[in-house]
Amino acid sequence: MAEMWINMGPQHPMTHGLWNLRVKVDGEVIVDAVPEIGYLHRGMEKLFENRTYTQIAPITDRLCYGSSFTWNHLYCLTAEKLMGLEIPERAKYIRVMAIEIQRIGNHLMWLGAYAADLGLLTGFIWALREREIFIDLMQSLSGSRLTYNYARIGGVAADLPTNFERDCLRAVDYFERKLPEHEALYGKSKIFLMRNEGVGILKREDAINLGVTGPVLRASNAKIDIRKENPYEVYDEIDFEPHCSDLCDCYGRYLVRMNEMKESCKIIRQTLKKMPAGPVRVKTPLEGAPGEAFGRVEDSRGEGMMYVIGDGTEKPYRLKVRSPLFVTLSAAKKMLVGYKLADVVAIMGSIDVCMGETDK
Amino acid sequence: MATAKNRPAKQSDFHVKLARELPPLLDNMPLDFEAKDDWLATMRCDKGAILKLSKILSERFIFEHFSLVTAVDRLDKFELIYHITSYQNHCMLEIRVAVPKDDAKVPSVTPVWGGANWHEREAYDMMGIVFEGHPDPRRILLPQDYLYFPLRKDFNMEGE
Fold first, then answer.
1. What pTM, to 2 d.p., does this model score?
2. Extents of the domains making up chain B
3. What's residue A287's pLDDT?
4. In chain A, how many domains are there?
5. What pLDDT does residue B49 have?
6. How many Å lie between the alpha carbon of B117 and the closest alpha carbon of chain A?
7. Mean pLDDT of A194-221
8. A37 and B140 in contact by Cβ < 8 A?
9. So what's the pLDDT on residue B5?
10. A323 to chain B nearest CA, in Å?
């Protein structure tokens, strides 16, 4: 049969944003795949160079709408390293707690979108129902629902609001009670298993060589989590276990994210218990010191990294963003070739696409 | 940020090994090897030797993961800063490569680390540095027929 190219995107329900996946098919089997990105490029790195350190913080939220706090935090962490600031212990605990709330929210958004991709609309409604609780928690912390701008260089914007601890524990209890229902919805669904098991296999060596990180890497049987490898903030004082799976397929990625949400609940409980009293913010200089610094965190999608070069003025000379999905997407060909065209939706859905951070 | 109580030792055994074994493998090129803490080390490399260095690092010292390449416009020259991670030896290496403006060409390291593919395309797209031997040397974020390299410091932001 003649081979042909098919454009999936830039307007296609599979893309979750604006990008184009060109697949070459022989009949129904994929023989080549080329992702084309750039439709959402906003010139973030040039914007950073022309703003002061304080002005940059709210733009970093826009790197990813699903996981905005982790990017906001990563920027503040990097700027603090450049300025040589030590932030109060309480602020560190609040940050870790907020990161994990954000991680649950992001994974639930992924779960909902993934379920909808595979035709499980009940899963979509359920996941967004639980996500609402975590968005409400972030809203009570920061005042906004998606782009929080809650981390500040030198700490966080404000201390916890009244009764936050009670609400947070309630939310975590409720979520842990509900999670088995979600697992039953997917794990016992024959259609879900048929479309996931053995589909989109990415072997461990390939995943590491292609620079894939985060849940996709851990689903390829590599137990690598930056929260454990290079603990930042107070992750070294918290007891948790990164999960991995040896299935290397879409189902493995689903399992890793589900288990990660359970770990996040554990981390939130511990931070609330261990959080000391005290100030949440220190005074910061306006200028970044001359020199370089980089921050490296485990974003919801993998290794998020920012590298900043300061020249002693109040604007950075260069600020480079490493987006985890930018690299994971480049490994798409490895995951797609050999599978059927109908599997594209499942495979691309399982890597949790967010175009904001990819296109920058 | 490392606090006083958990600040790690200055240099790991692996860094000592790297500093001792790397120069003879690279014809005693001056590397300015320096350990920042027990995890991060920085070094310098000539632009012609970067592919050779990558192969050595990947095969002999098991640096599996390519984290990032940053292109910087230093006005008189370009600078490429590679961040390469070894999960196994728990080490990150920061390699600085100076690239002259009138000959902005560097060998690509994509054959060694597949993860460098799109990072190098982005560096070309934004700064105009050509990576020789790259399997797919096209622009990535900007349109293919775009005329400028916007992250250069002389890029006119007000338009023409």
1. 0.90
2. 9-103
3. 80
4. 1
5. 85
6. 8
7. 89
8. yes
9. 43
10. 9
Binary contact (A307, B81; C-beta < 8 A)? yes
CATH code, A142: 1.10.645.10
- The whole-angstrom separation of Cα A123 and Cα B62 is 42
Residue A239 lies in a domain: yes
**B141:A309 CB<8 A:** no
Q: What is the mean pLDDT of residues B138-142?
A: 89
A208–B64: do the CB atoms touch at under 8 Å?
Answer: yes
Instruction: Tell me how far apart the alpha carbons of residues A318 and A336 are, in angstroms, rounded to a whole number.
Output: 36
Average pLDDT over residues B124-143: 90
Per-position b or e across A178-198, b if 16+ CB within 10 A of its CB: ebeebeebbeebeebeebbee
| Residue to substitute from A209, A284, A333, interface B, most B β-carbons within 10 A | A209
Structural domain includes residue A296: no
The pLDDT assigned to A169 comes to 92
Model pLDDT, residue B9: 53
Report whether A92 contacts A280 (CB < 8 A).
Answer: no
**Residues A36, A44 contacting (CB under 8 angstroms):** no
Domain region containing A66: 53-277
Per-residue pLDDT band for A267 (boundaries 50, 70, 90) equals very high
Report the complex ipTM.
Answer: 0.86
| Average model confidence (pLDDT) across chain B | 84
- Least confident interval from A181-190, A262-271, A283-292, B67-76: A283-292
CB pair distance less than 8 Å for A46 and B151: yes
Q: Is residue A149 part of a domain?
A: yes
All residues at 6 or more sequence positions from A292 whose CB lies less than 8 Å from its CB, including other chains: A82, A307, A308, A309, A310
Q: Are A298 and A64 in contact (CB under 8 A)?
A: no
Tokens of A328: 């994971």
CB A72 within 8 A of CB A149: yes
Q: For residue A76, what pLDDT is reported?
A: 92
Domain B9-103 top-level CATH class: alpha beta
Residue A121 lies in a domain: yes
For A282-320, give the DSSP string.
----SSPPSEEEEEEEEETTEEEEEEEEE-SSSSEEEEE
* CB-count burial class (<10 Å; 0-12, 13-18, 19+) for B82: buried
